Amino acid sequence: MLKLRNIMTTDVVSVTPLTTLRDAMELLARRHVSGAPVLQGDKVEGVVSASDLIGFAASQTGVPTDQEEAGDAEWRDWSDLPVADVCDAEDEPSAELLTELWDDA
Question: Is there a contact between 30 and 24 (Cβ–Cβ < 8 Å)?
Fold first, then answer.
């Protein structure tokens, strides 16, 4: 019978309780994972997920929450985004790219 050990990831991404939210977001995005255990030494203190981070960020003031009406939205020329400033050529854009889009973040 197939066991979890046959399909599990062994290169586990982890964070500590002192990892900043921004660093955790960037780590999860860079490693293409949706969550990580929170370790204090060898002890698992908890788990943080991308949805935990997104939910927290969305609940904070300064994050844009009002959507423009579809007919009122202006065309945005995305070519002026600061992608070159926040990511390496071989990496995907970091979470910082999203915050650059929010002037009031």
Answer: no
Question: What residue spans of the chain are helical by DSSP H?
Answer: 21-31, 50-59, 83-86, 96-101
Q: By three-state DSSP, how is residue 38 classified?
A: strand
Chain CA centroid to CA 97, Å: 10
| Averaged pLDDT, 53-70 | 71
Is the full-model pTM beyond 0.70? no
3-state SS class at 81? coil
| Spatial separation of the C-alpha atoms in residues 17 and 45, rounded to whole Å | 8
Report the distance separating Cα 60 and Cα 18, nearest Å: 20
Q: With beta carbons less than 8 A apart as the criterion, state whether 14 and 36 touch.
A: yes
Tens digits of residue pLDDT in 75-97 = 555 555 555 454 454 555 555 65
Residue with tokens 């070519």: 79
48-61 pLDDT, tens digit per residue, is 999 999 999 888 87
